[in-house]
Write a structure and sequence with these properties.
This protein is mostly helical. The chain is built from 15 helices and no strands. It folds into 2 domains: 245 residues, Rhopdopsin 7-helix transmembrane proteins (Up-down Bundle), CATH 1.20.1070; 136 residues, no CATH class.
Length: 402
């Protein structure tokens, strides 16, 4: 997979870079969000792993530094950092607010261990002697070279430890959750199983070299890189999938509520003064649109509130309960009926300003506007309930009375 042009590594690297770029605005707005910061670090490291593991980049690093195989400790360091970032993210992802202090301690310990391993990898490379550039088979070629051998074994040992840890953490947590989070954890776990296969392939090839055979080098030079590439992509996708799913689900719920509130918005349209201007026109976010609609609805209810009568609501509520409707739905229908009646009376008052609204009921008449779900139920009742239509018709003749 890691061919001479590196496309098998560069293409997924670019995709991960785009994913990281999409997360940066959110991190800019919430710089103290540790989970979001961990996600961005993970995506950045995954991008770097793909970019620097590609053969053209390996060759370029060696040429630029003038040190044969200088790319090796860099790649090993990035892979170690990526493994550490995965563990830290799982710690932060799976913990609740009550575990914040313990999570910080575990994350700091993981970061310290990761940095120590990275430092040791680079020190061992500096102490060793690797004068012959090996782009594909450095692990097996220098399997018996002092210090370089220890560097390779340290890296593989740390990588295997991280793979086992992540696999166990993900499978254990996946049994406790559902939906996109469970799917994401499954992808991460599968990715780390492939990482274990990568380590097994590397150790097997190195062991064969120690035994005096080079017939197994293909495991290290061809099979292992392909496993690592697929593994990194699965792991990064597994972390991103639940976040994307959460965003899409949130947007869908806002859009759905926005549509469900349309009848209520239309009912109060004449009594509403637009509270928020859509500065971005058609590009205005659904969150702003929903906020505007809910704000305008409350503004409209406030405008017609002098014409809301508790008697109308109580009569409608009694009829709905007698018809066997559940209490929360009956309350929404009763609120919608009282509002429809009030809108008609308010409209009559606009045409006859000298007419007083009459005695106003003490305290709030409507109960549904106190919650988003209540507003939705009230909005749906405006178009579905015969009781609401009856109250609207009963108030309408009064508007035509001279």
């Amino acid at each position: 997979m890691n061919d001479s042009n590196g496309l098998g590594f560069y293409v997924p690297g670019v995709l991960l870079l785009v994913a990281a770029g999409l997360k940066l605005p959110a991190l800019w707005r919430n710089p103290r969000d540790e989970l979001l910061r961990s996600v961005c670090i993970l995506l950045a490291l995954a991008t770097a792993v793909f970019g620097f593991t590609a053969i053209p980049t390996v060759v370029a690093v060696n040429r630029i530094t003038g040190v044969p195989n200088a790319a090796a400790p860099l790649v090993f360091s990035l892979l170690t950092a990526f493994s550490g970032a995965n563990i830290v993210l799982i710690f932060r992802w799976s913990s609740g607010p009550e575990d914040a202090e313990r999570t910080r301690r575990r994350s700091r310990l993981c970061n310290v261990v990761t940095l120590v391993v990275i430092a040791a990898i680079n020190v061992l490379f500096a102490l060793g002697d690797a004068p012959v550039e090996r782009v594909r088979d450095l692990d097996t070629y220098y399997a018996s070279t002092a210090y370089i051998r220890e560097m390779i074994l340290l890296y593989l040992g740390a990588h295997t430890t991280a793979a086992v840890t992540m696999t166990l953490l993900c499978w254990r947590w996946a049994r406790e959750v559902q939906g996109a989070l469970r799917s994401g954890l499954g992808l991460i776990a599968v990715g780390y199983v492939l990482n274990l296969l990568y380590d097994i392939a590397k150790f097997t090839a190195i062991g064969a070299r120690w035994a005096g055979s080079s017939d197994w080098d293909v495991l290290s030079s061809e099979i292992a890189p392909a496993l690592a590439s697929v593994s990194a992509l699965l792991i990064a996708t597994g972390f991103v999938l639940p976040l994307i799913s959460q965003h899409v689900t949130g947007q869908w719920r806002m859009w759905r509520r926005y549509r469900q509130l349309r009848p209520l918005s239309q009912e109060l349209k004449a009594a509403t003064r637009r509270s928020i201007e859509l500065a971005n026109g058609p590009w205005t976010s659904m969150e702003i649109r929903l906020t505007q609609r809910e704000s305008d609805i409350h503004d409209g209810i406030l405008a017609v509130s002098p014409y809301l009568h508790a008697g109308v609501r109580e009569q409608a509520l009694r009829e709905e309960l007698e018809a066997g409707r559940p209490a929360d739905e009956a309350a929404a229908v009763a609120d919608a009926a009282a509002l429809a009646n009030a809108v008609v009376l308010w409209g009559r008052a606009q045409n006859a300003p000298e007419e007083e609204p009459g005695a106003r009921d003490a305290g709030p008449v409507l109960a549904s506007p106190s919650s988003p779900l209540g507003l939705v139920r009230m909005s749906q009742a405006l178009t579905r309930s015969a009781t609401v239509r009856s109250c609207r018709r009963s108030a309408a003749p009064e508007s035509s009375t001279p």
